[in-house]
């Protein structure tokens, strides 16, 4: 299931492209996005597009992986050799090319394609000091080049649990509670990828300009949070979801030697242990006791939507925290410019004994997993990073050799994800606290996919 389609479904059909372009063979030509609100017709672009995000060297595994977005696909596939240079080092090794997500995109929407090049250092030189990588084609033409960053290696002293969250581009009022809740659970580091953009807040007929209808991003500093940034390009399309697949895979690789476990989730999703205070949970043990000694890469948590009234309030003591608001081209209404926000209307800290109805739910089938019979329900994962080659948004897409394709389901009577979702319209959060918190259609049809859109809903009257 492709996450971006969930987000687009309410506006554009994911199965049909309305964007004109060259349909004769393979993907369309890339389309350049324009930022003006009167812009309507995209013009196909006829050139090679290569945008390199990072090149990371894992000195423990002796592996360099280059993360980029390209168009068309042969701009990635042409790679034959990696030239790795550094202090006293000049090595050429074979380049391994992966474009694992092409097949997930069922539309021909022209957009950058995620490209991954992997260069394996020869035995004995795993930890050499590298400065740059140049990926070359078979006639020595340069495919791309990038400065190399060495990832942090903590050896046996790894931290236990980290979170990867990408992309974020607007504010969510749940954020401060989200930090505190996961810190209380024992999460030791949170890695958030912010998309920096100066988009018009107006959406055009193709849905471009999203996601401008929510409050703009506020970067809250906290010593447990590490912010990474990605800048928008003129070729980002909403269905591409601002580089999400590349960013989450970057997070996986960058932190694979620092954490035993990485949780992939969004800033309004709370990992909830049934009837247990978060401080009473030993998170690392919950994961370790289930995964150790198995060949599973990950544990999967089913997710349920809890609609909440997101009534934003000024919190005086938050003024003590250094806050930086993301830049945005368009002037904000005064009420949206307020940097200090919490929500009223739901408390993650108070006991809530309602149980989501996960009857007949299975996690969204991904990668080469044979679909498991049942109703596909939305899910999130925690993974053992060294067992995973690629993530597809929040599930394992491809395990490393020797590990199983099938994830292990976490029993829903023990833990699941509470997705606290603000009621919103096109313009922002609905401030009306009498608005209904239930959008479930009754009776629930247990043979119909629940993963699409909002999935399993918890309503106020549920027991
Ligand atoms: C695209 O580029 C090719 C090669 O440079 C050229 O032959 C072709 O006419 C171009 N097409 C468009 C639509 O610009
Ligand atoms: C180089 O790669 C291209 C495809 O990228 C292929 O068509 C060509 O045959 C290759 N040439 C050599 C000498 O391997
Ligand atoms: C569970 O879901 C599957 C797949 O949609 C469906 O075929 C089956 O009938 C469902 N089972 C029940 C008990 O509703
Ligand atoms: C993983 O373990 C299961 C059961 O122990 C086994 O059937 C399966 O073949 C293993 N898979 C791999 C990739 O080793
Ligand atoms: C549930 O959905 C399936 C598939 O759309 C449909 O065939 C079936 O009639 C529905 N059942 C009920 C009780 O509405």
TrEMBL record:
Q: Name one Pfam family in it.
A: Glyco_transf_92
Q: Does the record bear Transferase in its keywords?
A: yes
Q: Where in the cell is it found?
A: Membrane
Assigned keywords, A-Z: Glycosyltransferase, Membrane, Signal, Transferase, Transmembrane, Transmembrane helix
What topology does it adopt in the membrane? Single-pass membrane protein
Leader sequence residues: 1-16
Q: What is its main location?
A: membrane
Q: What class of enzyme is it?
A: transferase
InterPro entries xref list: Glyco_transf_92 (IPR008166)
Query: Has UniProt tagged this entry with the keyword Ligase?
Result: no
What EC number(s) does the entry state?
2.4.1.-
Instruction: Say which family it is in.
Output: Belongs to the glycosyltransferase 92 family.
Q: What is this protein called?
A: Glycosyltransferase family 92 protein
Q: Which organism is it from?
A: Coccomyxa subellipsoidea
């Amino acid at each position: 299931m492709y996450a971006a389609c969930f987000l687009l479904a309410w506006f554009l059909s994911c199965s049909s492209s309305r964007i004109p372009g060259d349909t004769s063979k393979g993907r369309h030509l890339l389309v350049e996005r324009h930022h003006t609100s009167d812009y309507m017709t995209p013009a196909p672009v006829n050139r090679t597009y290569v945008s390199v995000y990072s090149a990371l060297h894992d000195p423990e595994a002796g592996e360099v992986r280059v993360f980029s977005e390209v168009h068309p696909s042969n701009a990635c596939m042409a790679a034959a050799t990696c030239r790795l240079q550094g202090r006293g080092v000049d090595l050429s090794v074979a380049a391994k090319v992966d474009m694992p997500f092409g097949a997930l995109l069922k539309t021909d929407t022209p957009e950058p394609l995620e490209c991954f090049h992997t260069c394996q250092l020869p035995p004995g030189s795993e930890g050499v000091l590298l400065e740059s990588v140049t990926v070359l084609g078979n006639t020595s033409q340069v495919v791309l080049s990038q400065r190399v960053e060495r990832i942090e290696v903590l050896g046996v002293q790894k931290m236990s649990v980290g979170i990867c969250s990408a992309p974020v581009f607007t504010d969510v009022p749940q954020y401060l509670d989200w930090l505190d809740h996961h810190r209380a659970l024992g999460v030791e580091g949170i890695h958030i990828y912010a998309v920096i953009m100066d988009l018009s807040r107006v959406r055009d007929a193709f849905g471009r300009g999203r996601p401008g209808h929510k409050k703009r991003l506020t970067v809250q500093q906290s010593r447990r949070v590490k912010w990474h940034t990605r800048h928008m390009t003129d070729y980002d399309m909403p269905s591409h979801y601002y580089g999400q697949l590349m960013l989450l895979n970057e997070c996986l690789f960058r932190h694979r030697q620092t954490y035993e476990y990485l949780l992939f989730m969004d800033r309004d999703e709370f990992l909830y242990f049934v009837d247990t205070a978060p401080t009473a949970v030993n998170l690392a043990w919950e994961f370790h006791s289930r995964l150790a000694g198995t060949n599973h890469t990950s544990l999967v948590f089913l997710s349920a939507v809890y609609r909440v009234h997101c009534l934003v309030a000024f919190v005086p003591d938050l003024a003590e925290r250094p806050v930086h608001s993301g830049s945005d081209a368009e002037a904000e209404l005064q009420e949206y410019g307020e940097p200090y926000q919490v929500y009223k209307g739901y408390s993650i800290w108070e006991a809530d004994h309602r149980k989501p109805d996960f009857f007949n739910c299975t996690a969204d089938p991904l990668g080469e997993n044979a679909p498991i019979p049942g109703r596909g329900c939305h899910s999130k994962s925690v993974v053992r990073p060294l067992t995973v080659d690629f993530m597809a948004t929040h599930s394992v897409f491809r395990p490393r050799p020797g590990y199983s394709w099938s994830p292990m389901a976490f029993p829903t009577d023990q833990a699941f994800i509470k997705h606290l979702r603000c009621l919103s319209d096109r313009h922002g959060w609905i401030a009306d606290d009498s608005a209904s918190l239930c959008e479930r259609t009754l009776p629930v049809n247990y043979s119909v996919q629940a993963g699409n859109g909002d999935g399993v809903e918890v309503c106020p009257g549920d027991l």
